[in-house]
Amino acid sequence: MENAVYQRVRARVVRAGPYRAHVAVESFASGQITVPVPTLTLLEATGLSRRQLADAVLTVTVNIAALEDTDVCPFDWQLIAGMHHPATRRSALSDAA
Predict the structure, then answer these.
(1) Cα 86 from chain centre
(2) Which end of the chain is more exposed for a tag (fewer CB within 10 A), N or C?
(3) CA–CA dist 73, 14 (Å, integer)
(4) How are strands ordered across the β-sheet holding 20-25?
(5) How high is the mean pLDDT of the chain?
(6) What is the pTM of this model?
């Protein structure tokens, strides 16, 4: 894409399959259309398990001028500081059992 404009934005993992994840990127179609991403890319970038990826909120650098999902070109995935997935937290009650 000739007029690519890259910016860091928020994204939410909608589905994390064994090979492909689908991510809603806020700046692309208001997050209503998901962008396919290799699940392994997200696993390596976040350190989360595939189960923990579901509904994880991340930041990513994307082409905000994209008109199609193939032009979004997401890279540099990061977990938002302080935004831990509920499955990664432990309850004090679970330690007592």
Answers:
(1) 15
(2) C
(3) 17
(4) 34-38, 20-25, 6-16, 57-63, 75-79
(5) 86
(6) 0.79
Locus of tokens 């492909």: 20
How far apart, in whole angstroms, are the C-alpha atoms of residue 36 and residue 11?
12
Say which amino acid occupies 89.
R
Question: In which band, very low, low, confident or very high, does the pLDDT at 53 lie, cut at 50, 70 and 90?
Answer: very high
Token code pair at residue 37: 């991403």
The pLDDT assigned to 84 comes to: 55
The model's confidence at residue 82, banded by pLDDT at 50, 70 and 90, is low
* Measured CA angle at 77 (ends 71, 82), to 5 deg: 140
For the chain, which domains are there?
A: 6-96 (2.40.50)
Output phi, psi for 44, to 5 deg. -70, -40
